[in-house]
Each structure stands twice: as C-alpha cells, then as structure tokens.
Amino acid sequence: MHELPLLIFTLFLQGSVGVTLWLALGDAQASPRNALLPAAGAFVLACLGLLASALHMGYPLNALNALRHVSSSWLSREIVFASLYLAALGLATLLMFAKKPGWKPLLAVAGLVGLVDVFCMAQIYIHTSVVTWQHINTLVLFIGSVGIIGSACVAVGAPSRINLRAAVVIITLLVLVRLVMKPVWLGRHYSHGQHRGDIPSRSVTDAGATAHGASAELVRFRCGHAVFCRGRSEGRARPGAAGQRITDCG
C-alpha cells in the first residue's frame, strides 16, 4: 500500500490534465458558466493528486529542496511544471467564477503545461534500471491515461451526445494506439532479454527452462520496481538520492 499515494498522484494529475485539454480545445463559444464546474473539478483532482504525492514523500517538509536540481532532475521538473499547471488552472477557474475574459487562453496554457508535466513524469520512469519501463511505451501509456481518464470524466460530468461520441472516439483511438505499441514493446523487451541471456535465442523445448527464464525476468522486474519506489520516495526528500539508490538488480 506504500505506492498507493504515488498511484493516486499519477492518475489524478493525468485525469486533471485531460479534462483541462477538453475544456481548452472544446466549443469556442462555451460560456464560463458551463465550463466552471468541470474546471473546478479538474483543479480539485490535481490538488488531491499533489496532496497524495506529498504523503508519499519520506520527508514532505523538505520537498522544496527538489527545486534546486531543475537542470538535471526529471523529478524536479515534474514538481515545477505540476505547480505551474495548478497555478494556471486555478487562475482560469477564478476568471470563470468572476465572469472575466481571458479564461479560455489560460486553459490552453494550463493544458500545455500539464502535458509537459506528464512528459516529465514519464521520463522519471523511463530513466530507471527497470528494463520494462525503458521504452517510449511508458510515455504512450501516460499520454493515453490523460486522454482516456479526461474523456471519461467529461463524458460522465457533461453527458451530451456530442461529448459522448467524441469521448468514445478518443478512447477507441488511444486503445488502438496501445494495441499497436504492445508488440513493439514486447519485441524490444524480448531482444533485450536475449542480449542479456535471460531468454534463449534458439528454440527451447524444455518447458522448465522456459519457465525459469520467465521467473528470472519477473523477479528482476519486481526487484527493480521496489528499488525504484524506495528511491523515488527518498528522492523527493533529497534530490539526487533516487539516482544513487537505484541500481540494476540483474
């Protein structure tokens, strides 16, 4: 359960960015009254995600130390862009509430900053010793979550016929992209396993040997995941610690 706050942060922030993009790219003639509730919901969702992220830190009070390594740490960049996204979205929501102009362009800025934050979030996972994460497939999954969760939230929160149709189309396209990426990711992972000797290059008829190779890969994946989560927790409190603690379990 220790990774649950991190999971909440990831999915809530991605869903919030998805809703923001829906509002920014939606009907140009939309009124602040119609967009206020979804925008406020996206803001609350992002706040809950950031709160969960703080609970995941080893020392939450030292979180500001992460800002010292923006030039070299994807974790620091994630924190910076998440803060900028929340600020832009909050300001846009206030403009809607006050019925002032300028909220639509600000939503577009918030959505763009949110996408940059999701990119930084994916890079944290890609730059680890976990082999199964070291692929563009990780970024595809994160961007896919933005589209799927955001579309689902909008379809449920504003169930008009147009929104429902658009949500179904977007979700279907993203699922198809995932299905295309799956064999590419598996092929890369299989090739990496052959290179390291975990997967035999010749045909193996011994089922026991095949099972042993698969078990070794599973153990390595779990080991890498555990070390990554521990390093990420400490890295949020002490920038640079995550990179020092994450080692190859192979």
TrEMBL record:
The chain crosses the membrane at residues 6-25, 37-59, 79-98, 105-126, 138-157, 164-181. The keyword Coiled coil does not apply. The lineage of its organism: Bacteria, Pseudomonadati, Pseudomonadota, Gammaproteobacteria, Enterobacterales. GO terms for molecular function: dimethyl sulfoxide reductase activity. This is Anaerobic dimethyl sulfoxide reductase subunit C. The keyword Nucleus does not apply. GO terms for biological process: anaerobic electron transport chain. Keywords: Membrane, Transmembrane, Transmembrane helix. InterPro entries: DmsC. One of its GO terms (cellular component) is dimethyl sulfoxide reductase complex. It comes from Enterobacter cloacae.
